[in-house]
Design brief:
15 strands, about 375 residues, alpha+beta, elongated
């Protein structure tokens, strides 16, 4: 959709007393249908109640087309809507959005917050505790806010959260939202996943990973089973146990038979891992398993019916707590950048080997050409 210079300005007030309001601020190179696809990636009930003028095609159910100067209305769920695009200006007020904002979407959702303030010192990579100091969102509002932050990260934008009542003089000051601006760092999202109907044997997966980094090793190797400790059958099972010694030895012998039968049975492998040691940069792991909880956009694909094989490519940072800070240490940022290149390279190599689709940690699909 080509963006128009005549977008309407943001209205001063759009919420009722039980609703929260958040703004998704995006740069000029974002198209409206990109926002639609990200909404479809997270919300089952996505539909256009009002289709923005000029949107050539849509992939969800539609209501009517917007009139001249009227914004579109994308329904995320029964109770939440995204309206826009708007110009980055208010009807008689300054919306306080970051420089470079060209498109704004106005999001209204039920206001649902925890009663207690966020626990200080916890992981807060996205700054939500700063934005909601009295109580984090939960239920529907949590789902919407989490999606807004993920969408802003993917599209290079920002979210101004909790703006209900900020520009309405009828709302008392102590009832207005925080209005904090969150600009999530795109580089903070490192992990990827490849979804496919092809199962790679462990050695084949290791070979694919080693083509990217020679240190990749299988994580399925263990120690040989040496049997139960010697003399175990002669000791009491617990203090005060009064089994006859012969009966105790018979019980242990039967248990040994069960263990031997299990060890001799064919091995059924339903998951494994490949680990790459990056030294001071942490580890990159490939976790391979069957997966039934798929990203929404994959669930109707013929090869994904009933589940598929997932290759989760994850970075294990050297300092987990530091990695979850909103502004981490520069050394951690440098390690994250190097690890992200490794995660992207391994995900691309796996996709070339097994096909399917790649998704980021927000379950948004990724074009392999972008890795």
């Amino acid at each position: 959709m080509a963006q128009s210079a005549a977008l309407p300005a943001l209205p001063r007030s759009v919420t009722r007393g039980h609703e929260a309001r958040h703004l998704l601020a995006l740069p000029a190179d974002v198209a409206v249908d990109e926002v639609e696809v990200l909404a479809m990636s997270r919300f089952v009930g996505t539909r256009w109640d009002v289709v923005p003028a000029g949107l050539a095609a849509v992939d969800v159910p539609v209501g009517r087309t917007a009139g001249s100067g009227e914004p579109g209305v994308l329904r995320l769920s029964r109770h939440s809507t995204l309206t826009g695009p708007y110009a980055p200006a208010g009807q008689g007020f300054d919306p306080g959005l970051p420089a470079g904002t060209q498109l704004v979407f106005d999001v209204v959702t039920p206001r649902e917050r925890w009663d207690d303030a966020p626990v200080p010192g916890g992981g807060d990579r996205d700054g939500l505790a700063r934005a909601f100091p009295a109580g984090l969102p939960n239920r529907e509002e949590e789902r919407v806010v989490t999606w807004l932050v993920a969408a802003a990260r993917r599209l290079g934008g920002s979210v101004r959260v909790d703006v209900a009542g900020l520009w309405d003089p009828a709302v008392a000051a102590d009832r207005r939202g925080s209005g904090v601006v969150l600009t999530p760092d795109p580089a903070a999202a490192v992990d990827l996943a490849v979804f496919s109907d092809v199962w790679l044997d462990p050695l084949a997966c290791q070979q694919v990973a080693r083509a990217v980094h020679p240190a990749a090793t299988l994580a399925t190797e263990g120690a040989e089973y040496q049997g139960p400790p010697k003399g175990l059958a002669e000791r009491q099972l617990f203090p005060g146990e009064d089994l006859d010694p012969d009966e105790r030895r018979e019980l242990h012998a039967r248990a040994d038979d069960v263990d031997i039968a299990a060890l001799q049975a064919p091995q059924v492998l339903d998951g494994y891992g490949v680990v790459t040691d990056l030294g001071p940069d942490g580890y990159v792991t490939v976790e391979v398993m069957g997966e039934e909880a798929l990203p929404l956009l994959l669930r109707d694909l013929p090869w994904a019916q009933g589940g598929c094989v997932a290759y989760h490519v994850r970075w294990d940072p050297p300092d987990v707590a530091e990695a979850q800070r909103e502004v981490p240490d520069p050394a951690l940022v440098a390690a994250r950048r190097r690890a992200a290149e490794m995660v992207a390279g391994m995900s691309r190599a796996l996709w070339e080997a097994v096909g399917g689709e790649i998704a980021d940690e927000a379950d948004f699909l990724v074009d392999p050409e972008d890795l």
